[in-house]
């Protein structure tokens, strides 16, 4: 395992993230140029099944491969792209590149379900669902392999177009996930009206529950809600074996976080999966065993 880990970290050493405080905000022209030059790419972060340890899915997370500044994280450009009306173009590129990665892995005998993040601002365009599904259909990806993640917000229930787009995607057979559940506007009304298929517990819930026993109740009740509504449960920010053990005990189904793997470029993903498979077997048996 040590050897595998060494080889992996050698190869996987990434350019440092650009520092947010010193780098200037990109301008609209710079963003447009980056889109034209295809500089945005998805990194893939694996998710593991808490029952078996197996990785069967991943989340696509956008990165900007800047020729000078190196790898720029999404928080430094997604809000700007939303502001300048460029987010739909970014999403289309991420979707197309995710489809490419999916087919590449498929050709190696591996099929993963991939989650893609959507911006709420896109969902207010009528016909957006049709556009997304036409890109995926054009790339021969069955809807059952794609999940769209959206962060819940008050805006959702106000906008008939958002509801319609989400319902259309679900009707086509795509998964729909509520991202960062528990941080924003959580409304039971919304949970019931929109045909979500997955509830994704925010990282702060998971971190809090692991540090403070009283907070376990918050996480446990959200997981109970997911079960009650027959939604698949995923926990973000799973960083330690103790987090894994707790989530297993609370009967959460899937885990995503640095314990399992960081977001990786497509070319490193299968090695990352192999590394986790080995690390999982090396976990203490009480972490893996049934409670
Ligand atoms: P998110 O969808 O909630 O994604 C999870 C974020 O948590 C990712 O940050 C991931 O790298 C980070 N993370 C995962 N596991 C751990 C962990 O164990 N510990 C810690 N400390 N962090 C962890 P990232 O990649 O910087 O993305 C930030 C946000 O940017 C995403 O949050 C998502 O809302 C947004 N985003 C990323 N890609 C896209 C995209 O293509 N389109 C849109 N609209 N939004 C995107
Ligand atoms: Mg997400
Ligand atoms: Mg999230
Ligand atoms: Mg988040």
What are the salient characteristics of this protein?
binds ligand C2E; single chain; alpha/beta; 48% helix; binds magnesium ion; cyclic-guanylate-specific phosphodiesterase activity; 291 residues
Question: How is the secondary structure organized here?
Answer:
Layout (H helix, E strand, L loop, with lengths): L1 H11 L15 H9 L3 E10 L5 E12 L3 E3 L5 H6 L3 H21 L5 E5 L2 H4 L4 H11 L7 E6 L2 H5 L1 H13 L2 E7 L6 H6 L4 E4 L1 H9 L1 H16 L3 E4 L5 H9 L4 E3 L9 H16 L3 H4 L3
Parallel strand pairs: 2-4, 4-5, 5-6, 6-7, 7-8, 8-9
Antiparallel strand pairs: 1-2, 1-9, 2-3
Helix pairs in contact: 1-13, 6-8, 10-11
Account of the protein in words:
- The chain starts with a helix and ends with a helix.
- With 291 residues, the protein is an alpha/beta fold.
- Strands 1-2-4-5-6-7-8-9 form an eight-stranded mixed β-barrel, surrounded by five helices.
- It has helices spanning 2-12, 28-36, 78-83, 87-107, 120-123, 128-138, 154-158, 160-172, 188-193, 203-211, 213-228, 241-249, 266-281, 285-288; strands spanning 40-49, 55-66, 70-72, 113-117, 146-151, 175-181, 198-201, 232-235, 254-256.
- Helix 1 (2-12) packs antiparallel against helix 13 (266-281) and helix 10 packs across helix 11.
- The longest helix is centred in the middle third of the chain and has 21 residues, at 87-107.
- The structure holds ligand C2E and magnesium ion (3 copies).
- One magnesium ion is lined by residues 179-180, 200, 236.
- The site of one magnesium ion has 4 residues, from strand 6.
- Residues 24-277 form the EAL domain.
- GO terms for molecular function: cyclic-guanylate-specific phosphodiesterase activity.
- Keywords: Phosphoprotein.
């Amino acid at each position: 395992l040590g050897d595998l880990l060494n080889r992996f970290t050698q190869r996987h050493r990434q350019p440092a993230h650009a520092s947010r405080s010193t780098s200037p905000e990109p301008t609209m022209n710079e963003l447009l140029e980056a889109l034209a030059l295809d500089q945005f790419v998805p990194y893939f972060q694996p998710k593991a099944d808490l029952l078996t340890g197996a990785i069967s899915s991943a989340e696509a997370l956008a990165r900007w491969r800047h020729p000078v500044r190196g790898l720029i994280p999404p928080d430094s450009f997604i809000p700007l792209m939303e502001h300048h009306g460029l987010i739909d173009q970014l999403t289309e590129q991420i979707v197309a590149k995710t489809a490419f990665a999916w087919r590449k892995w498929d050709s190696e005998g591996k099929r993963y379900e991939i989650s893609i993040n959507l911006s709420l601002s896109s969902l207010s365009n009528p016909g957006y669902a049709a556009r997304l599904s036409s890109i995926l259909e054009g790339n021969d990806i069955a809807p059952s392999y794609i999940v769209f993640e959206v962060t819940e917000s008050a805006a959702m229930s106000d906008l008939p177009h958002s509801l319609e787009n989400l319902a259309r995607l679900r009707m086509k057979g795509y998964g729909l996930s509520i991202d960062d559940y528990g941080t924003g506007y959580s409304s039971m009304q919304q949970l019931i009206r929109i045909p979500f298929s997955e509830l994704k517990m925010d990282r702060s819930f998971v971190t809090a529950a692991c540090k403070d026993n009283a907070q376990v109740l918050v996480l446990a009740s959200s997981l109970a809600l997911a079960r009650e509504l027959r939604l698949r449960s995923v926990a973000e920010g799973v960083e330690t074996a103790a987090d894994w053990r707790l989530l297993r005990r609370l009967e959460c189904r899937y885990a995503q976080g640095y314990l399992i793997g960081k977001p990786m470029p497509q070319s490193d993903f299968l090695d990352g999966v192999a590394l986790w498979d080995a690390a999982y077997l090396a976990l203490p048996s009480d972490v893996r065993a049934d409670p």
